[in-house]
Amino acid sequence: MSENSKSKVGFLTAFQVAAVWFGAHVGGGFATGNQTMNFFVKYGWHSIWLPAVIIIIIGLTYRESLVLAKNYGTYDYKSWSKKMYGPYDKFFSVIFEIGYLLIVLLGTGGSIAGSASLMETYGVNYLVGVLITGGIFYILTIYGSELIRKASTIITVLILIFLTIIVIVGIVNNSGNLSHLVSTKYSPSSFGTVLYSGLRYAGYQAFVVAIVLSASDTLKSDKAINKSILLGIILNGVMITLSCIMLLAWMPGAQKETIPILYICKRLNGGFLLFSYSVVLFLAFVSTGIGCVFGAVARFENVFKKPENIKKRRGLISLVCMVLSMAISLFGLTKIVVIGYGYVGIIGIFAVVIPCIVVGKIKNNKFKKEKESILLEEQNDISNGDKNSPSVEGKGDMLKEKDSMLKGEQDNISQKDIDITSEEDKDDVLKEKDSESIEDQDDISKKDNDSVSEENKDDVLKEEDSVSEGENDISKKDEENAPVEGQDDASKGNKKSVPVEGQDDMPKEDKESASTQEDGNTSKEE
Questions:
Q1: What DSSP designation does 355 have?
Q2: Model pTM greater than 0.90?
Q3: Is residue 45 predicted with pLDDT exceeding 90?
Q4: I need a surface site. Which of 77, 204, 293, 517 has the fewest CB within 10 A?
């Protein structure tokens, strides 16, 4: 969603809540001009600027109330009053509820009285007008509630349109009197009385916060609430200021009238404007009166358990409210506004306006600081977590590296052990092979030696046999021949020249041993 679309949604949401405030304020009582006349205009030229100041005070009261409701999620006036007035909510919550119920009954009674007065201008008896209006209200409350809820916005827009037309026409047609009253600073009462009257207006309008609360759950931030309250201040402030200026222009004649704006319409000689205003004013009375009855029904429908049928229970509550409101309407619209709204306004100054602006502001600031501290702690925790996470990761990497190094060392050690054992096994195998080969060689050498020795023995024996044969031959010759000088030499030479069988096959050592033996034998013979 783009920023422009978001801003449009935010503006529409803020405007809707501001429109609820405007509709609750600019109802039947305001549309008659009776309220503004008795709280502002009759006190003279201060009515030009004082209404705007009072609307700002009401706006501040609503602002702190809506912020408190947003902070704690208390959008019904019962739970809201507990949060606003705690720890003294047991006393102030009761006061607030009494004041709100009085506003409901006075608002409904004022609407019936205004309708009866309007009918009276057309020749209908006031009491008959009260009965007719009361009956219409009751029927619409039971069967036409959805219709009135849907039509309330349209009725508010129509009031705004026709009041704007009447205000402009009324100021233009009597601007001379207005200039005279302002230039002479006309004021029949002291400034203190004027200010006190304006504060009473703020006091009883402050109870209307219960209606605004129920529509403010769409405002999710302080900024949205501020925007909505600012729009409400502009709408209500401009409308009430223009209405007061127009009524001041028709002073003092309009002061005595029950419906001052109707008086001005008649003086303007506008048939269409008079008729249109009369129709719209009656619709405004219906919308305001039924809205007040809805408030009472919503408050008490769960308090009483009988009758068990919810429709019958709502019908019974509506009937009781209508009877009480019709009884109040018999006092007349002016007395309802001056006396009824006046005293409820005094209660509202001390039970709603001051507590909301002062105590509500303190509680909202405390909530904001606590929320900021919590957010700061969370941010610090997150930042600390971000700071610690690299070190933890570093430690984890170091531990992983150490683990890998240890594993590598263990693998190397195990490999070395395996190599060592394999080397040892190899050495053992080689030693075994060497020992086996040595044993085999020894066996072979022994066999060779044995064979050689046997052959040598055979050869020696053969030689000895041959030698003995030679000796026998020599002895025979010696015996045959006479001994001659040099016989020894001849015998030696003969002995040396005698061939020995197998002498070439014998090894040198055997040959040497054989020759040694021959020399020995020869020496023996000699």
A1: I
A2: no
A3: yes
A4: 517
Which residue is associated with the tokens 């001052």? 260
Structure tokens at 363: 């509680």
Domain boundaries, the chain: 7-369, 405-479+491-525
Q: What is the tens place of the pLDDT at every residue in 448-480?
A: 444 444 444 444 344 444 444 444 444 444 444
Sign of the torsion angle spanned by Cα atoms 509, 511, 513, 519: negative
Give the pLDDT confidence of 372-385 residue by residue, as tens digits.
888 888 888 787 76
CA distance linking residue 435 with residue 273, whole number of Å: 138
3 state DSSP class of 144 = coil
CA distances to 91, 237, 401 from 22, rounded to whole Å, are: 30, 10, 72
Sequential DSSP letters for 15-77 = HHHHHHHHHHHSSHHHHHTHHHHHHTGGG-GGGGTHHHHHHHHHHHHHHHHHHHHHHHT--SH
Q: What is the pLDDT of residues 325-336, one digit of tens each?
A: 999 999 999 999
For 186, counting Cβ atoms within 10 Å of its Cβ (0-12 exposed, 13-18 middle, 19+ buried), the class is: middle
3-class SS string, 168-235: HHHHHHCHHHHHHHHHCCCCCCCHHHHHHHHHHHHHHHHCCHHHHHHHCCCCCCHHHHHHHHHHHHHH
Please, what CATH class does the domain formed by 7-369 belong to? mainly alpha
The string of pLDDT tens digits covering residues 380-410 is: 878 776 665 555 455 455 556 655 665 565 5
Q: What are phi and psi of 518, to 5 degrees?
A: -65, -45
